[in-house]
Design a protein that fits this description.
Length: 105
């Protein structure tokens, strides 16, 4: 399964469960006016940040079966958890469902 398919499934699931979600394009953006590519200054930022009841309490990094987190992603996840958030490395929708059922049930 491609990471984009995993991201879409997770976003749909979170929205159905009352989350406001935002997917980040973490590789950067092409700026046509300048004909240049700008890197994302927030290295390690996860693919999805989700909000519920006014708090950013969920961050999801999506990876395929063979995908590996970068050092920046590992550090970002650690800092997010230290601030009280839930950080999930998701290789499928099941990974997110398992964590959220454990937290909210």
């Amino acid at each position: 399964m491609k990471e984009s398919d995993i991201q879409k499934a997770i976003m749909d699931y979170l929205r159905l469960n009352g989350y406001f979600c935002n997917k980040f394009h973490t590789t950067g953006i092409y700026v046509r006016k300048r004909d240049t590519y700008m890197k994302n200054p927030n290295k390690g930022c996860p693919d999805i940040l989700a909000f519920k009841k006014g708090f950013t309490n969920l961050a999801v990094e999506c990876k395929s079966d063979k995908g590996v987190q970068s050092d920046e992603q590992l550090e970002w996840g650690k800092r997010f958890e230290e601030s009280g958030g839930i950080y999930i490395l998701a290789r499928s929708l099941d990974d997110v469902e398992k964590v959220l059922k454990g937290v909210y049930n």
